[in-house]
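Appendix B, record 7
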Amino acid sequence: MKALSSSIQNLPWKRFLKYAVTGGTAIAIDFAIYFVLTRFGNVPYLSSRAISFSLALVWNFTVNRNWTFQAQAGRVSQQAPRFLIVMALTLLLNLVFMRIGVSYLHLNDLFVLLVVTFLTAIGNFSAHYLWSYKT
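Structure tokens (predicted):
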């Protein structure tokens, strides 16, 4: 328990807040695209999820690289693949949990999307902070 407390105190809180703002904006973009595709485009929810998630990636990578992690000194050719690996794993988790929540538990798709997004946020921050944007 002491190790966990120490780890929390050592988190880069200012950077995490920037990550939360960037992520919040990416979530808004992601949710808006998902909503339009599923409600007006009649695109199936899993396809809509993959499309909306992918489009929000462009915003997320650019703003995190330039503002949140200030990693412009690093090479995009090194950072982008790392970022994409983390986000691909996140997308996979999203799709699995969306499938379970919507198809098997019969929960509202927007509710499941919101819960899954928040559950993966801290893991994403840690992976990007410790690996994606490291030079």
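Remarks on this record: DSSP finds five helices and no strands in the chain. The first helix runs from residue 2 to 9.
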